[in-house]
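Appendix B: complex inputs.
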Amino acid sequence: MDCIITIEIGTGAIRVVAFDLQGKMLGSSKGAYPTFHARPDFSEQDPEQIFITMLYLLKNFLNEKVHPQKHEVVSICFSSAMHSVLPIDRYGVPVGNAIVWSDNRAKKEANDLKNSDLGKVLYKETGTPIHPMSPLNKITWLKNNDKDRFLATKKFLSLKTYIIQQLTGEYVIDHSVASATGMLNIHTLKWEADALKHSGIKADKLADLVSVFYSPKKIKKEYRASLGLHDKVKIIVGSSDGCMATLGAGVWGDGKATVTLEESGAVRVIGKEVLQDENQRIFNYLLTEGIYVSGGPTNNAGSVFEWYAKQFGDFKKAFDMEDCMEDLINQASKVPAGSEGLIFLPYLQGERAPIWNPNARAVYFGLNIKHEQQHLVRATIEGILYAFYNIGKTLEEHRTYTSLSANGTFASYPFWTQMMADIFNKPVHIKPGSGSDSVAYGSFLLGATEIGLHKNLNEAAETVKLPDSFLPQQQHHKVYMKHFAIFEKLSLKLFDEFEAIAELQNNN
Amino acid sequence: MNQYFLKKECKELHAFPHIVEFALKKTNTIQFDSLKKEACEFVRFYYIIDGRYDWIIEEQHHVLYPGDLAIILPGQNFGGEKDLLHIGTISWVWLELQQLERNGKMAMGIWSGLTESECATIGKILLLINCQVLSKLKEAGIIFQNIHNEFLEQEIGYVTRINQLLDELFILLARQLNRHNNSRRDFPQAFTKLEQTLRTDLSHQWTVEEMAALVGLGTTAFSEKVKNFTGFSPLNYLINIRISEALKLLKRIDVQITDIALDVGFYSSQHFATTFKKLTGYTPSEFRKKHITPNNEIF
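Resulting structure:
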């Protein structure tokens, strides 16, 4: 049987999944690698460990789940997290670790640029909000603060570029990942000259731009032999995790949006227009030529609930997080919607969309003497989902959508998904037992389209069927909206106090 | 009895060549220079029964209260903050172990009933978890009191019993240090800590027992957690780290391949070559040749 393998280079792990050509999952495997924080603002990963993890995982996966069953691999389609920067020297050897999306070292660079005229132009041309996450600001930081490394660098790659280069020898970056660098003009599909100039580089310091369907000519023979792949197997460079999660959830055109609930999260729509937001609150990343995934990311999703569980949960067995979280959700379900007037702003890690305020901090608001632990739990979950709704509301200023599809680890808790339906007042669809594989499924659709199984990605997206649906409950929606009104105001009103408290914390 | 003092030359200690001192001491008046700061020999444990003590251990200031236990390892600096012993009651034991090296390699001696791998693990924990004072450790107080009683009574089997109590003290410490080091809530955090430790001593032949002990879990639960979290068994995860460090060194022409093998923790260059080739399809020298030649240069 023919199969397509997808490889996702995620924030903390590689996921390898095999699908048959009908889209049925044949097996999957995961391998994690660490993120290093040499300083509080730094988040780095070791490109060699990621490469080895990928190779090790893929080899074991092929030997256990693909070759013995006589499945024929047609193609291997990659996807990856966005915004990473990996400097390499003239021999292609990494100059230090890769700087990943969550790295905040370029705070000042981003802030300066955001408030300039150039910043406004660059947002319009590149679609990427001006933020420390984007490679544009990271490379500028290297230029300003780490001259030796900057000068030793022959090219600035994305992690996916490096992994694919190691396998095939070609330095390529797909339009999707490139469009998240803050340096690609999403209208012309060329590197944006002003952005390059700003970060002090020329286009030859970046990888070659290619379509998401592009296949490098060959896999190096040593790796091909080691993996047991024949020479017809194609590598497809693929897209980004965000774009693939959206495609894999079957979102296309008007009417649908997707919500990803992992440690961090996002709300996204797909369409032919760039959503130009005057306040630069929305990102527009390219899926393919002329098709844009627009939306807003949040820093504070599952990670906030995990934080709560670690601090206040009851661990009956050492390290048993799942059990502890289920217990907490059970407690939360005993409190009515709105947590009897308790509101939580979930900004433990600052916030991106829609308030884009790195100084934002978490707040419990409205505590009274009758509130108990279970109110705090419920308010915490409600607050996390209010933040998603806040993004969704911003998107609705530009695009209407009538239903949501949810994916990610935390979307597999029915309590969360129902609450999301109630807060958004829209039905929420979820793939049964899907968990977080919507990225993989998106990559599969891309791979399937590449071999001609679908005419285009639009048709591929239409094949996604999402049966399970959570319908909104009006009476809850009304309660939530009363609380959300306060949530929304507080998120902006506390601006000065957020700044003051962040300064106190940073000076500690 | 408020004072009890055994030194190496005492006949009570003839049966215990590993015990250098055992004491229960009540201080009624302050004497200058009664606890001078100095680099210490032997492993020393001090248990506070009564009083308040200001001590400096390895440049760090600690205030100790009843129920607290101080741990001083060979070579560490220790003494009273004012070089004196305050008013109060303390009990201590000094032990000369067969081996305790800076990398945590520990052997107790024939008196101990601990297995070789238990010793190795406890040694790692003592050395790696840098904790000089464990507070509110009443169980340690009971062990000290029992040792004292055994010395006083010298009933049948007391030699064996005292050695068992010393083993118990080491086990108690190792377990407490683990609890102290890990919240037992946040596995990703505990794993990150462990990973840092592995990387700082990659040439060591880590066993699953040692790794599990550093996280404070049994080997079965530990392996299951690691597999769940990383997708790999503990030893396979370790191979990932070793090979990725090796990759980096292979791309630097100034390092010998035989050195790389041992530095990143393979038994031999043969073992390294086999593992590397199996995973990548290259031998280490082929990999080096293909990856840092002028042909590879980017223009």
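Chain A has a mean pLDDT of 95.
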